[in-house]
Amino acid sequence: MFDDRGPAQRRNDRSGALQRDEVKRVWVDLAVAYPRPGGRPVRPMPEGVDLQSRVPGELLAWRRTTTGEWVGWVCLPVRRGEEIRYVYQYVLAAALSPREDVPDRRDRS
Questions:
Q1: Could you say which DSSP state residue 99 is in?
Q2: Superkingdom of the source (predicted)?
């Protein structure tokens, strides 16, 4: 993921952890990571946790799931109103993309 060699071939150990100099800056698409159930009406809740934005994160490791998909162990900000909390969690590879040093206008944190 984000490398021609793939996650498992980049390291010599089986831990899946990236070396500190390999930590990758990524975008996390929370709408992909947390899809909304179809057919339910939207009720705006400004004080709720924002799980539909695209936020910057740091990819710390890759892991394989029991069903064969790749997930990234990521540190990312989650906003609730004016409060921002940094969380560590597994995120599906489909919700991650490389983040360049150029700022993105959609960055909400």
A1: -
A2: Bacteria
3-state helix, strand, coil in the chain (%, to 5): 10, 40, 50
**Other C-beta atoms within 10 Å of 16: how many?**
18
59 burial (CB, 10 Å; 0-12 / 13-18 / 19+) is buried
Alpha-carbon distance 53 to 55, whole Å?
A: 6
Write out the two tokens for 14.
């089986």
Tokens of 25: 């800056």
Q: pTM of the full predicted structure?
A: 0.70
Give the count of alpha carbons within 13 A of 106, CB side only: 10
The SS3 call for residue 38 is coil
Starting from the edge strand earliest in sequence, which strands make up the sheet with 70-80, in order? 83-92, 70-80, 54-64, 24-29, 96-98
